[in-house]
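[worker-b] picked up task from shared queue
[worker-b] task type: protein-ligand structure
[worker-b] ligand name resolved to ketopantoate; SMILES cross-checked against name lookup, match
[worker-b] sequence length check passed
[worker-b] input payload:
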Amino acid sequence: MRWVIVGAGAVGGVVGGRLAAAGQDVVLVARGAHLDAIRSDGLALHSPEGRRTLRLPAVGAVTEHEWRPGDVAVLAVKGMDTPDVLRPLAAVAPPETPVLCLQNGVANERAALRVFPNVYGVWVILPATHLAPGVVVAHSSPTPGGLDLGRVPGGVDDTALALSSGLRAVGFASEPRADIMRWKYVKLLMNLGNAIQALCGPDAEGIDELDALLRAEATEVLRVAGIDVATPEEDAARRKGLLTIQPVEGTPRGGGSSWQSLARGTGTVEADYLNGEIVLLGRLHGVATPANELARQLVNRAAREGTRPGALTPSQFLKLLP
Ligand SMILES: NC(=O)C1=CN([C@@H]2O[C@H](COP(=O)(O)OP(=O)(O)OC[C@H]3O[C@@H](n4cnc5c(N)ncnc54)[C@H](OP(=O)(O)O)[C@@H]3O)[C@@H](O)[C@H]2O)C=CC1
Ligand SMILES: CC(C)(CO)C(=O)C(=O)O
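[worker-b] inference finished, payload out:
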């Protein structure tokens, strides 16, 4: 099996880096200064255990890779970039190529299923950071993260078993799951707070209340939409003892993936596929979701305008709520 990591940022870089460090066949797809740095100096993988530099092949687009049977396309771009990588991928990769969505949100799998029949979803519990070109950071040790996965819409086949065991072999916790989308929906509830964390900063007083507001809207929407979601008890049991966040020399953990988008000034953010998923379902099912809509709008504007993370207070957010 050859792992083609499409989007070798925080999550893709850590997963690809660990696979490569263990001698697995890995190709990275990256772009811009990050691609240049990987090509010239290798991928720097920082973790609580130390730093490693990995020399591994990197290409600038999925069309630059020579796809062959046995390749797995690991999508690790943010949700808003998924259509841009799937379109060329479908043109060059064999149709039977397994597509592993190593991403938050629940829309990537559906998008991939339009153009590939063998799609796998992942419940991604992996605190990782990518702020500087060529560098990715894993914050939890000894287990860097949990990557349970399964076939979409459901089931576990030989490919799911092989992917899960390949990830376990390099230190991740990974269980094959026949009901992976239930787990992705419960993860979505957690990611609704990404926008608030980016807007207000991870330590702002009052963000827990905003988080609760976003989740309450989402829980009601998912109930009305009849979507099966793993229960909080199942989620807590699976997470128990999974992560141990430890200091990584020279690289503090600032915030999650949306915080990193603002910190890096990428110009875009994933909120349309996190809060926006709830807003979409609310519109389809006649449930109001004003807090998720406001979070979605504000963080998109912050990304567009290059606003630094932490520029808004939770009370300012509440005042803006209709
Ligand atoms: N970071 C974390 O701790 C966690 C993240 N996740 C999820 O994992 C997924 C990935 O997030 P994360 O790793 O943080 O994101 P990153 O931005 O760190 O990594 C994504 C990478 O993909 C690159 N990319 C985007 N489009 C293309 C393209 N067309 N061609 C080549 N490269 C491309 C980006 O480049 P560029 O920088 O130029 O945009 C970036 O380097 C998201 O769904 C996120 O929600 C889940 C759990 C934890
Ligand atoms: C939950 C969290 C914040 C963990 O890093 C995450 O999933 C993200 O950064 O998107």
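[worker-b] attaching auto-annotations
[worker-b] Residues 193 and 212 are 9 Å apart (CA to CA).
[worker-b] releasing lock
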